[in-house]
Amino acid sequence: MAPTFSPLDASSYRHPDRNGPYESLREATILAMLEQGIDYNSLSENPISWADDQDPFGHVKAQAYMNYVGNSFIRLLESFEGHPRDEFPRFMSGCGIGPMTNQCSMENQTGCQVS
Question: Which intervals of the chain are annotated as region Disordered (predicted)?
Fold first, then answer.
């Protein structure tokens, strides 16, 4: 039988503990997030798929950000596992009362001007 992991552990491949070319930048970002009080175990890293998430001009497409928000939201929900102990499976399966996102908005800002 395969080992059993909590839902949060099962999605830990998205956790920023893994090594890569941006490790120093990642470490600085994580330190800044921890200083803001963000729970380390609920962090999620969502790498950009340059083939899918980029437009012809090299910009990350707006819809990619919503995908990152969705992935991070699920990881946040998985971090609640220890709190409603007996109710967690029902909480995550959508039986009874559960989490739902009613609205998500995004404000785009451009950082350069074209003359």
Answer: 1-21
